[in-house]
Predict the 3D structure of the following.
Amino acid sequence: MTLPAGNVLIVEDDAETREMLAALLATQGFHAVGAEDGLEALHLLRTVRHRAQEVPCLVLLDLRMPRLSGGEFRRAQLGDPTVASVPVAVMSGATDAEQRAQALGAVATVTKPIDVDVLMDVVRRYCA
């Protein structure tokens, strides 16, 4: 059995959550890169895109963050042709998370607290 390969960009301002998600994805054979806000995520996404064909297969995006929120990140991402095509899954505890994710053109919504099975289904759908 070969392990799935895929780079996942985790955009989450809470360090513990970010590290937990990265560790979880690593146990499933994925390579996770973390960013603590939308600004860092945008920079990482653009840098990776220029350097490697292994562009992230999925961005896990928290909506509420300092500096550049999830929504602001998504608008900037969609405005940049080099990274616009990378699918985004919204991670949020907001009661209207589903509607907000749809408004941002996200491919999926993972509600917080995060259900590991739901999260892995989403990641596998785009990265396996």
Notes: The longest strand covers residues 7-11. The longest helix spans residues 38-51. The beta strands are 7-11, 31-35, 58-62, 88-92, 108-111.
